[in-house]
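Appendix B. One record, verbatim.
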Amino acid sequence: MRKLVLLLIIFIFVAKPLAFTQNLDSIDKKLDSISDIHLKIEFLNEWTGKNYRKLPVEAIHYAKEAIKYAEKSENHSGAGNALIRIALVHFRKEDYTQSISFFNKALDKFILSNDSLGINNTYLNRGIVYRNMNKYNLAIVDLFTCMEYFENNNNTFELPLSYNSIGLIYKALKKHNKALEYYYKAEKIYKERNQISFLYTSNTNIANILSIQNNFQEALDYYKKNLDVLKEAPNKYKLAQTYHNIGSCFFEMRQYSMALEYLNQSLELKEKIGNKNLLISTINSLAHVFYAQNNYKDALEYRKKALALAIKSKNIEYQKDCNEELFKIFTRLHVADSALHYFSEYELLKDSIFNHENLKQIAEIQEKYESEKKETQITLLEKENKSKMWQRNSLIVLLILLLGYAIFIVRSYYRNKKTHQLLQLQNERIQWHKTLLDQKNEALSDSNKTKNRLFQIISHDLRSPLASVYNIAQLIKIFIQQRKYQLLEESCNDMEECISNVLSLTDNLLSWSLNQSGKLPCKPVILSLKPLLENNLRTYSSVAKQKNIHLQLLLEETLFVFADRQMLDTVIRNLINNSLKFTPAGGIIAIGAKQRDQFVELWIKDSGIGIAQDQIAHLFEVDHSQSYIGTNGEKGNGLGLLLCKQFIEQNKGEIWVESTLNLGTTFRITIPAAENTNEIASILTSNANSN
């Protein structure tokens, strides 16, 4: 009986390796079965290429093994492919600097082996990384280099990938027509090769650009093409997303019944898929449609469903958005208590979301570390106990002892080898998570820079004019007592200027604060540009008169734009005020506008002191501490220009500056033009004539 028990224990001891050890064992056995070193490299590169997404640490480990074999056999192309795998792992964890470093090493290897395809594939991948780093100039060089090679060598698989990557860069640069040009090239190749899955992606890319350009009907046509694609290559997830995109297009076109029809089809499919986050996005879109129709009852019902799912899935971001929308609905329904409740929940979630994520990651790392530490201790204890068990039973039967001892020796060697590998990989995992935490800390540091800059503006630029007002008030008392009445007018003018500066800075700070907290939503409407400009010129006419500056409006035709009135008014006011500060007496400030395709370009040109070229690059940055002094000693802190940039971008426009020292400065902005501008102008003209 004791012999049977002992044999059973030996069997359990042999048949109980860790799951991860089994995985490594199977790879090592396969590797050991391959005799040719070049085939070993090929096998490792193939395995890491398939698994670097889900097993990043293991992929790096085996890629390094492939590099060792490649260096022994001087297989430079094999080493280059292994280095690409390591670079891709770093790219997926957003460690772009390390990713670029490994792509550069891979490029050196491919150059040594004269592997043209490997070189240009590296350019393609490195260009994608540069694009994610917003280094578009470097990305364009790499992508156009590999594109030219793929075109000349008819590489029809890689070529459309380069086209799409170039299109994404132009999309980021807001050169949407150029982006469409390259997306269409990719689409043409996919159609010729009948690559259905890639054609779905191509249609989606094109439709996304068309949506950005407000060409919703054309975007809708491309989304509908995906319905035909999915008939040939069915995919429930892609079909659900396509229905969602079609519904969103109809919503933007204000065809609410069609929007509801497709969004409900998307919802039905997503319920079958069972992904809560997918469900939340479509339910939120349905709530948007009902809200736009002033159907607050159904909007409330769907928004509450979305919130409940977000709570179940523990998606704090969705919870925050749902609470914000519920606050808006109850505000519309004039239910103050409920509106206040959801607003409070929204504020709490918004403030805590970043800290919550950091604490969760730290807790997970600590828990994993403690768990792995305990497992290692248990492994060592089991090893010690089994060793003692063999010693106690060594006198029972010599044959079993010898057999067990032999198994123990082999097993100990194997376990020590795998334990060392496991500990090494665990250490790399911890380093990986540490890198992610460092990146989060960098993001928090950037946020603190913004806060510190705003505190600097409040503490210095707001306090200084108020101190001046106090000092001028003291001087007025002295002048009255001394009966120096001729000096009172000058002091009053100085006080008026100081108060004007305080009001201007206060308005900008209030607008900035509301915009940062999301309480200043962008609500674009059709606006006539001329009355808006005339009103602002009247506002600053007295200031211009004091400085003997001539204000001129160069706007002959009636132009209409599609923008938020308050935001656009704030931008124009800040730019005129800025020009007045830096234009000397006797100067000219000209304001004009002209329609260009689907945008209206507005410019404000002055004959002022100009801006140095090294300062232009920092004009729209919040953490740039440079202060600016006007022609009459006026102070500028740059907050107004930062606010202008944010407001114009929220209205889907652009802002830039052209300047020459001592010759003047021109600020240019583009704003989306209202649709049917000529028709609106004719209606206004006919109404004026009838009156």
